[in-house]
Each structure stands twice: as structure tokens, then as C-alpha cells.
Design goal:
Length: about 325
Amino acid sequence: MWFLLLLPLLGFAQDEIDVSAVQDLENILPDNDIPRDAYRNIPFERKNRNFSHPMRHVSMDEIKGSGLSHGFIRTDSILYRIKDNQPLRVTKDFYLKFYKQEDELNFRYLQNKDGSCTLKTSSDTVVSVDKELELFEPPIRYTPAPANMVRTEYDEKLKMTPEAAFYAGLVQSQYVRDLFNDEKARTGNTNQYAFHLFTDWKLPVKVGGAVHYERSSYNLSGNGLVFYESLSIGPQFRTQDFNLLETNWRLSTQIRVSPLAKLRGETVNGNVNFKFNSTDLMSTLEHPWSNGFGQFVIGGFHQIQWLNIKDQSEIVSLRASNQTNQSFGLFLSQVFQ
């Protein structure tokens, strides 16, 4: 009975088995052998797998043609020199560029700053930062910042700007008319030569000082003349330029005092002399133009003058001590910047 069971097997053994299909399949599959020098660079967990995938050789041209990505490598990571597989230890964190295509052993190839490629490392070593770089999106529209941005500056040397000015106008003098008891002395002419000094800063109001030499003249009845002159000094304030009717303007105010004011009168009864303490309040409206020296300024002024007689040995008759001289006129000045 056992013999009858073995007869079919003996019949099959005599026929030749056709394995050509298996051989054709083996030729199609890629080589699965790993070179000895490359095997030592494969991570331990990949060496100890119970299976291995067929590998397709990836050329260097294919790797370089895959494009670049941005990555990050930490300290103590291992890089390999391509020409001899020599391992190199990373001594500090750094950012780099690497090619997107891995080779058949899952190594990433790094690009040097000069564009060459001499190093590679395991794919697990490189951390891609492409997503982080995509977080910034440039604006579609934007307004450029103005070039003349005003900054608040501290601890800078204080700069002063000089100015020379000339004033000319008319005087309505209640005080001189009352002093000489002459109605003709109510109106006179005045000229002033001035030197100003202003701070050069960005605050809304500039401060400075003013020195004025004033000379005025009045006519008296009987061809008499009165001459007034004084040298006064005091503080001055000026606003920043503002636009009015599409033109730049500014305002200034000054108050000056003089203990050296004096008046000389030539009357039909002889010459008389007076000494005064004077106080002058002047306001101006100015229009500046830029020129090669700085700014040329033209404007109008109004001045109120209080006189207080002193060192007077002769008796005088004044209706009130608060009588004033008021001046109106134009002025020209040059600011040197």
C-alpha cells in the first residue's frame, strides 16, 4: 500500500521542473547587496531589521537636481565626508542647505557656502525648517516710512542760530507829545538795528535773546527836533513755521529793557536832555525764504514802549506816567544757518 502512495511522487521526480519565470523575476529586481564601507554608516536599528528593501541606486546628478531645502543640525551630530566616508562630529548648532533627494541609503547631501557638496549625513540628523520660513508672508501693499521722521533726541549739544535785522517804521508817541507839550511831536520815525540769537531745536517754540539799538526822531513846533536813542536787551520767543494761505509764516515776541535810554530835544527855548529806563514789548509776523546763507525774512512789527524818566533835575509836567510810544513798520533780517 505504501508503494502505491509513492508512485505519483516518483513520476513527478522524473519530469524536469521549469524555474525560468523565477529567474526572470530575480533579474528584474535590483541588487540588495550593500557595500562594506557603506554598511558601517547605516544606523544600528536599520542593520538589525528582519528584512531589507530592494535598493535603487540614486545618482549624484539626480540628487543635485532635486532642489534645496533649509535645515538645522544640532551639536554632536555626525557628518560623513563623501570621498572617504570619514565621520566628522559637529561642535555647534548651525543652519544649512541640503538636497531634497536622499540616496539609496537614506543619506542627505549638504551644500557648502561655495555651492559644492562634500558632506552627507543621515536623514534623521537633519531637521527641515522650510515650514518655519514660510510663516512670514510679505505684505501685498505697504506705505513706505517718511524719510524725514522726527526723532526725540537727548544729550545733544545745544546749537544757536544768529540773525541780523533792520526795522523801520512810524511812532505814535503820546509820551513825547506830553513831555514837550507839543501836538506836533505825536508822530515820529524810528529805525532799529538788531542782533538775535535763537536755539536750533525741534520743540514747538524756540527761545533766544535780542539786542536792539533804536533811534527815533520827532518834529517840534518852530522847527525844533527831538532825538531818542537806546540800547536794549532781553529774551525772545519764536514759533515753528506754520502754513497760512499756502505760505510759511511764524510769530515772535520779545521784551527788552534798557537803563541807558536818552532823549535830546532842540527847542526854541534851548536844548534839553532826558534819561530814561525803558521797557519795550515787540511782536512780529514773519515770512522766511531759504537762501545760500540760511533764511531771508521779511515781516511786520508792532512795538509798545514804556519810558520812566530818571536823574531829572528840572521840573517836568506829565499828565500820566503810563503814557506809551507805539511803533508800526516792516523789517528785514538774515538768519545764518
